[in-house]
Amino acid sequence: MRALYIASTGMLAQERNVEVTSNNIANMRTTGYKKQRAEFQDLLYQDLRRTGSSTSASGTTVPVGVQIGSGVRLAATARVMSQGSVESTSKELDVAIRGEGFFQISLPDGRTGYTRDGSFELDSTGQLVTVDGYTVQPGITFPDDTRDITISTDGEVQVTTGNSTTTQTLGQLTLARFVNKAGLDAIGDNLYLETGASGTPQVATPADDGYGTLLQSYLELANVNSVSEISDLIAAQRAYEMNSRVISAADEMLSSTTNLR
């Protein structure tokens, strides 16, 4: 019976839906995390009576045909790149992006990663790095006797050192934008990679036209809404249950058929 297969595709689709939702909930406190949304498509149809087919020699046609669908499939897990709320941390090296753009990170294999996670640190040489020790582009190295660090909204990094009362500029943070930022490839560790779907990065300084600004001593939180995620989870659970009931109903019908005498 076709209903068994159709309902099984529905159960599998809702299982994937729950997996996507559970990952969003698990990352509610992940800095810079962007939630995902499961998107579905119906599968092929079998035409038992084709719409528009001829019904007589005089040229009359079928206004509404008979099509039987074959179920559903997961088409995409679209990433929602909306702005997350920002939270004060009182840490000088924490930087949040308010608006468009990604920090550029030099990965050990030579590739460039992109992130919204601005929880930066200094390594043993005084270079600005991520929590995993990856260099933040362009490389900025702080003197050993750095006292105060100031990161402006347009990305200029200034410090005061030793007993000096004057500031010196160490470098300029930049941001990268993409035509299709949802097309970036998430590789974990709060990092994305450029893909053919995302387009090539367009790099500029913060606060330039179309680019976001930086907030020192703030971090961007995940853009996950707990209430909507829980409601999505309940809806997926109910859809899963209804598909399982279809399988039970189809099984009972088959059982009744086999018991006919």
From TrEMBL:
<dbReference type="InterPro" id="IPR019776">
    <property type="entry name" value="Flagellar_basal_body_rod_CS"/>
</dbReference>
<dbReference type="InterPro" id="IPR020013">
    <property type="entry name" value="Flagellar_FlgE/F/G"/>
</dbReference>
<dbReference type="InterPro" id="IPR037925">
    <property type="entry name" value="FlgE/F/G-like"/>
</dbReference>
<dbReference type="Pfam" id="PF22692">
    <property type="entry name" value="LlgE_F_G_D1"/>
</dbReference>
<feature type="domain" description="Flagellar basal body rod protein N-terminal">
    <location>
        <begin position="4"/>
        <end position="34"/>
    </location>
</feature>
<keyword id="KW-0975">Bacterial flagellum</keyword>
<keyword id="KW-0282">Flagellum</keyword>
<feature type="domain" description="Flagellar basal-body/hook protein C-terminal">
    <location>
        <begin position="216"/>
        <end position="260"/>
    </location>
</feature>
<comment type="subunit">
    <text>The basal body constitutes a major portion of the flagellar organelle and consists of four rings (L,P,S, and M) mounted on a central rod. The rod consists of about 26 subunits of FlgG in the distal portion, and FlgB, FlgC and FlgF are thought to build up the proximal portion of the rod with about 6 subunits each.</text>
</comment>
<protein>
    <recommendedName>
        <fullName>Flagellar basal-body rod protein FlgG</fullName>
    </recommendedName>
</protein>
<comment type="similarity">
    <text>Belongs to the flagella basal body rod proteins family.</text>
</comment>
<dbReference type="InterPro" id="IPR010930">
    <property type="entry name" value="Flg_bb/hook_C_dom"/>
</dbReference>
<dbReference type="Pfam" id="PF06429">
    <property type="entry name" value="Flg_bbr_C"/>
</dbReference>
<keyword id="KW-0969">Cilium</keyword>
<dbReference type="GO" id="GO:0009426">
    <property type="term" value="C:bacterial-type flagellum basal body, distal rod"/>
</dbReference>
<dbReference type="GO" id="GO:0071978">
    <property type="term" value="P:bacterial-type flagellum-dependent swarming motility"/>
</dbReference>
<dbReference type="InterPro" id="IPR053967">
    <property type="entry name" value="LlgE_F_G-like_D1"/>
</dbReference>
<dbReference type="InterPro" id="IPR012834">
    <property type="entry name" value="FlgG_G_neg"/>
</dbReference>
<feature type="domain" description="Flagellar hook protein FlgE/F/G-like D1">
    <location>
        <begin position="96"/>
        <end position="159"/>
    </location>
</feature>
<dbReference type="Pfam" id="PF00460">
    <property type="entry name" value="Flg_bb_rod"/>
</dbReference>
<dbReference type="InterPro" id="IPR001444">
    <property type="entry name" value="Flag_bb_rod_N"/>
</dbReference>
<keyword id="KW-0966">Cell projection</keyword>
